[in-house]
Amino acid sequence: MSENVTGVIAREKGAEVESVTIVIPEPGPNDVIVKIQACGVCHTDLAYRDGDIEDAYPFLLGHEAAGVVESIGEDVTHVEEGDFVVLNWRAVCGECRACKKGDPKYCFNTHNASKKMTLEDGTELTSALGIGAFADKTLVHEGQCTKVDPESDPAAVGLLGCGVMAGLGAAVNTADIKRGESVAVFGVGGVGMAAVAGAVLAGASKVIAIDLDADKLETAKNTFGATHTIDSSKLSEEEVIEKVRELTDGFGTDVAIDAVGIPVTSRQAFYARDLAGRMVLVGVPNQTARFDIPAADFFGRGGALKSSWYGDCLPERDFPMYADLANQGRFPLDKFVTERVGINDVEQAFATMKTGKVLRSVVEI
Fold it and tell me: Does the keyword Acetylation apply (predicted)?
């Protein structure tokens, strides 16, 4: 039987979000209904609202979520009613060409719920990243549910569902930082700050945070463990690169992570590496951005240039591990929660996000 709950939607491009009644259908054979406890407010949700991802309005927003499995379809075996889960958008299929090659982190056919949630008039909703968790409850595929320690704070652990995992994974999985290596992180918003924390966790000896905002740099150093900071607000592109080299005996870092994804930071990350260093792009570029590097420099500097999708994570492997590390006090997951707001405060949270003064606002439901 279907049920009505409250959810936050973007009805049309650029319009303020609305809290409305949405209809959740009875779960299909491999679907589950999750009662949401908390959901982070991510830049991706704002991009959906503003039409920067697709135009399949209306969108049911929200995807960085944790909650409790309330009901399950008849063929579900992955979770049970009552399980505490973090939702993910990489429910690997096991059958696509990436999965069959042994690279499920690149799965090209991830699972989503078999049915659409709707408005009361029957209008189908497009769920953000196949999740749609700014709602009392949501409908997802069983594979989108990853069980974690039920003692975890939902507001904190839910952030593993996207932004924190993206930055953390960019450092630990994509860059594969080794103990003693040097790392530069360009841009320390939520994703970049997670990359800083990931580099520290991986044992980097030098972690350099670069940003325009002095407050973020202070947080990167005092809360997340950066060893050095560079305020780029009054520096030229070349001066930033030179300061990174000054901090690394003139060579550049072993790893450079671009958590912004604009041409300036991409060039800085490319040239701030040591010879044969690794550059990782985790900041999402817009549709018009270009990465213009002379072919001779690309060849001559060697190393590796990688993009990081979802931190190259495997939710079933990574979410429980980092939840446990957080609960043991070994990873500062709770420090990413800047404020806790209600379900009717999403539009205000978007405005706060634009000020750059929060890592994450989290909707508690």
Answer: no
